[in-house]
Amino acid sequence: MFEEMEEAIKKLKNNKAPGADGITAALFKQGGTELKKGMFQLILRIWVDEELPHDWNFGIICPILKEGDPMAYSN
User: Fold this and answer.
1) Largest Cα–Cα distance in the chain?
2) Which DSSP state fits 55?
3) The pLDDT value given to residue 58
4) What is the pTM of this model?
5) Can you give the residue ranges of every domain in the chain?
């Protein structure tokens, strides 16, 4: 399973905006073995406990509007 995670990290796209946690794909790609091991342990714990960390239930939604009236639903 660790190899699957490494493959997923390799497939992450560069130069994308980080999420609410501020972590970029480049950090995972260049973070080294210790970061990957820590992330893998977190994933395993979530799998075994069948519970996500509380903070993972939150997100930031930033609408990107087309030209025109920002109050129009079709925009």
Assistant:
1) 49
2) G
3) 77
4) 0.61
5) 2-57
**Res 66: pLDDT:** 72
Taking the C-alpha atoms of residue 59 and residue 19, their distance in angstroms, rounded to an integer, is 8
Separation between Cα atoms, residue 75 and residue 65, nearest integer Å: 6
Specify whether the CB–CB gap between 39 and 28 falls below 8 A: yes
* Distance between CA atoms of residues 9 and 1, nearest Å: 13
Q: 40, 34 in Cβ contact below 8 A?
A: no
- Alpha-helix runs per DSSP H in 21-73: 25-30, 32-49
User: pLDDT tens-digit profile of 16-62?
Assistant: 888 777 888 888 898 899 999 998 999 999 999 999 888 778 777 77
DSSP-based three-state secondary structure for 8: helix
Tokens for 47, please give them. 């799998």
Under a CB-based contact definition with an 8 Å cutoff, are residues 9 and 29 in contact?
yes
